[in-house]
Amino acid sequence: MAVNPAPTETLTKRVLLAAPRGYCAGVDRAVVAVEKALETYGAPVYVRKEIVHNKHVVETLRDRGAVFVNETDEVPEGARLVFSAHGVSPAVRDAAAARSLATIDATCPLVTKVHKEAVRFANDDYDILLIGHTGHEEVEGTAGEAPEHVQVVNSPDDVDDVVVRDPAKVVWISQTTLSVDETMETVRRLRERFPSLQDPPSDDICYATQNRQVAVKKLAPDADVVIVVGSANSSNSVRLVEVALQAGAGAAYRVDRAAEIEDAWLDGAATVGVTSGASVPEILVQDVIAHLAAHGFGQVEEVRTATEELMFSLPRELRTSLKAAGRDVQHPRRGERTALPVTEA
Predict the structure, then answer these.
(1) What is the DSSP string of 135-184?
(2) Helix or strand holding residue 274 (H, E)
């Protein structure tokens, strides 16, 4: 006698939405600085490098009249130039001054803090081991504060190649957007070689980078797939993919926008984790949520590990112009969440 198979249970598909995610205070400040500059001075406003590492943000600002350049010599003499959130070296500032450029410094204050640490330790004649990625704008700017004292350490595997003048006078500092775990592994190996290695006076990896990694670590073990919204040149976004995989996600992918999600990634998945890098506007996350809902992932649960309230004031140069014009020097938080149908996980 044939036995009828048991009814197949309906697969409950859900999204675990990381919080915090998206815009950090430094990115918020930098993007608003360009917007306010365009409103105040009119187009064009020149920006050295990408103001933040996100394609959507750069394209949107370009459409409004921002002109992105690689170096100061591409900017007409006397024009207005914004330094990106990643910071610049003294040599770049000098080059801008030589062309009589009116500069607006949108460097993230947390990056500026690392610059000041480099200057301080160089003045005390330390060898400075800068943990970060060679070629990243932030690393170039920080190293440029004291090039004769700084050497970049890209990963734990680079530690054996480090050479210092005096093992008793060595300090480490770091790029603000790194993987916390990999950075501390690099520090551990450095300390094995240089027991007197000095720590920076406070954490260099920014609060937002750490918070986003902690949130991903919490949801990753329950996720068949994690989707990180962020651009390929966004260090903190790329790190989130790595952190998700290390924390137990079945798979993890980075996309700039929802249209890049491949259907094959979702095959057989019941739970999809979603987060975004610190330079990603919330609208791109909402598009991903809508895309997943169209594929049956209609239940959204927020996984919150911290609440962020920090905001930075606009760059001094811009505040001065706004005050002179009798305009409000405050700015709205550009990364504000738009209501999503979520429940607490």
Answers:
(1) T-HHHHHHHTTSTTTEEEE-SGGGGGG---S-TTSEEEEE-TTS-HHHHH
(2) strand 271-276
Q: What is the pTM of this model?
A: 0.91
d(CA 16, CA 271): 7
Reported as a pLDDT band with limits 50, 70 and 90, residue 4 is: very low
Examine the pLDDT at 11 and tell me if it is beyond 70.
Answer: no
Residue 333 has a pLDDT of 56
Please answer whether residues 327 and 14 qualify as being in contact, where contact means their C-beta atoms are separated by less than 8 angstroms. Answer: no
d(CA 145, CA 127): 13
Give exposure, 184-205, as e/b (b: 16+ Cβ within 10 Å).
Answer: eebbebbeeebeebbebeebbb
Q: Give the span between the Cα atoms of 274 and 283, in whole angstroms.
A: 13
Active site residues per annotation: 138
Cβ contact 118:89 at 8 Å: no
| Dist CA 144 CA 128 (whole Å) | 12
Contact of 173 with 128, CB cutoff 8 Å: yes
Q: Which two tokens stand for residue 226?
A: 């994690």
Query: CA-to-CA distance for 221 and 334, rounded, in angstroms?
Result: 31
Q: How far is CA 272 from CA 53, 197, 278, 298, 345, in A?
A: 25, 41, 20, 11, 13
Counting DSSP H helices and E strands in the chain, the numbers are: 11, 13
Are the C-beta atoms of 104 and 37 separated by less than 8 Å?
yes
